[in-house]
């Protein structure tokens, strides 16, 4: 059965954590990354050929047993730091892409005008889809949702990330800034005994950024107004004026929508 877990933060690996191969007497060797083992073997030897890689990175282990034993500690730096870096790259790219920033800015303004302060969530189903956005831009941007800060879910991102995001949503000026919340779904293989087991996890990062300079800022609505219902009175009187009254009603609706960021 598929296990579903969510994780937002992960410790960054140390400078030596990504080193897979070391040198021993100028010969390429492999070292088991399980600290309690540390076995070394020549890469070209029979023992070296038996080494097993981590399912998600280049860490190598002398056996499946060592890989399983190290997983609970290794997972914190293996998957989450790599995808966390990808989240930060997405955020940086959004800042740099004028069309993408304008698109998010308009959504942030519409969301604020309708629901109050909150964050724009950008969700990618896979790391590959996030990388595609980095290379191809706006047309491959993830799914966008505006979320009020009151509706943010701590179990979706972890307590530390949740606290940071709520703090941002409570301390920004919606007339000049927006809060962005990037989330990437990762499916990884868990090295356990028995049948193969897969985990779906969410890795998230958030940031506060300036609205696009090209955005048209609509007039502010009253703080207590969340839903606007637009209607018109039944058309009565001179039949020759019905068309004129309809056109006036439509013009008023369009005017109200433009004020709220819809074009």
Number of helical regions: 7
User: What is the helix content?
Assistant: 25-40%
Q: Give me the oligomer status.
A: single chain
- State the order of secondary-structure elements, H for helix, E for strand: EEEEHEEHHEHEHHEEH
Shape estimate: elongated
- The tally of beta strands, per DSSP, is 10
What is the domain tally? 2
User: Mind telling me the C-alpha Rg?
Assistant: 26 Å
Task: Compute the separation of the termini in Å.
Answer: 46 Å
**Biggest sheet: strands side by side, in what order?**
1-10-9-7-8
Largest pleated sheet:
5 strands, mixed
**Overall pLDDT level:** 77
- Which band does the percent of strand residues land in? 15-25%
Poorly predicted residue ranges:
1-26
* Structural class designation: alpha+beta
Pfam families: Ajm-1, zf-MYND
Protein name: MYND-type domain-containing protein
GO molecular function, one term: zinc ion binding
GO biological process, one term: cell-cell junction organization
Layout of secondary structure:
Elements (H helix, E strand, L loop, with lengths): L2 E2 L16 E4 L2 E5 L8 E3 L3 H4 L2 E2 L6 E2 L2 H33 L1 H18 L2 E7 L2 H10 L6 E6 L5 H4 L1 H12 L6 E14 L6 E14 L31 H18 L4
Parallel strand pairs: 1-10, 7-9
Antiparallel strand pairs: 2-3, 3-4, 5-6, 7-8, 9-10
Helix pairs in contact: 2-4
GO cellular component, one term: apical junction complex
Pfam family, one: zf-MYND
InterPro entries: Ajm-1, Apical_junction, Znf_MYND
